[in-house]
Amino acid sequence: MDILTNVLNTLELKGWLGSRTEVSPPWRFDFLASPDSTFHIFNFGGGYLHIEGDTTPLRVEDGDVVVFPHGHAHTIYDEPASPLTQAAVHLDYDAHGEYEIYPFEGEGTQTILLCRAFHFENPSNYPLLQNLPKVIHIPGEQGLMVEGFANIVSLLAYESTLQQVGTEVMLRRLTEMLFIQVIRVWIAQQATGTEGWFAALRDQPISAALGLIHQSPERGWKVEELAKAVALSRSAFSSRFTQLVGEPPMKYLTHWRMHMATHLLKQGVEVEKIAQRLGYDSEVAFRKAFKREAGIPPARYRKLA
């Protein structure tokens, strides 16, 4: 079971490259906080990035990709003393928003900024999103080391210059691929011994246990069964799983079932079929479990979604 693929499918990732902006020094842009994950790609130039709440700016160079998983407010500029070019810029995802190009016809060294957002139709507070830092910075030269990453960035930069049939759908699909590659690179960067859901993916026994849960959420798993399947004692497995994932195995199983339930409810699947698919003895048992976890009955959740 490819856990990352499984999770991203239920999160319903949507990507959108909203604009290509060409600027020449001096320049400064202030971006508002967003309910979505936002990003920038720096092409043919660089600058500095200041994140709200941090004291030290981050230097960014040509080819760098910067992602704000939680949509933090931030400022980007070519030099610390540069005057404000544009304030209160929104990067919120817009399913129907058109892609725009803002060309600069002046002289001097140009910086090209590709900006916009990643959106999740079904986040449900899933650990993949909750465990990400406020900013992920992938340097251009580091991206070249990851097969396929530089190709995506280059193709995005190329497509962003075009305004022809199919450009917008290409840009949307490429931004979705970009997010997946950023997450893969970031996971690979994490030091051995770190904790959290992503660290669990790198731990062979716990990753295997997560794979079993994701592959068969309908099964009435017991801690002993999972421990035996990954060749650990019950106590060692339970402790290791809880430490890395952040919650006990059975709690994680329940949360994953509820996450899948929200995904299926939004797709219009009947409650009875969802109950069967997730291993509940009856529709009533599922309704009770869902209300206990989500705070509202499945039918009401479907109406609000």
From TrEMBL:
Gene3D superfamilies: Homeodomain-like. Keywords: Activator, DNA-binding, Transcription, Transcription regulation. Pfam families: Cupin_6 (PF12852), HTH_18 (PF12833). Residues 207-304 form the HTH araC/xylS-type domain. SUPFAM superfamilies: Homeodomain-like, Regulatory protein AraC. The keyword Transcription applies. SMART domains: HTH_ARAC. The keyword Transcription regulation applies. InterPro entries: AraC_lig, AraC_XylS_family_regulators, Homeodomain-like_sf, HTH-like, HTH_AraC, HTH_AraC-typ_CS, Tscrpt_reg_AraC-type_HTH. This is AraC family transcriptional regulator. It comes from Ktedonobacter robiniae.
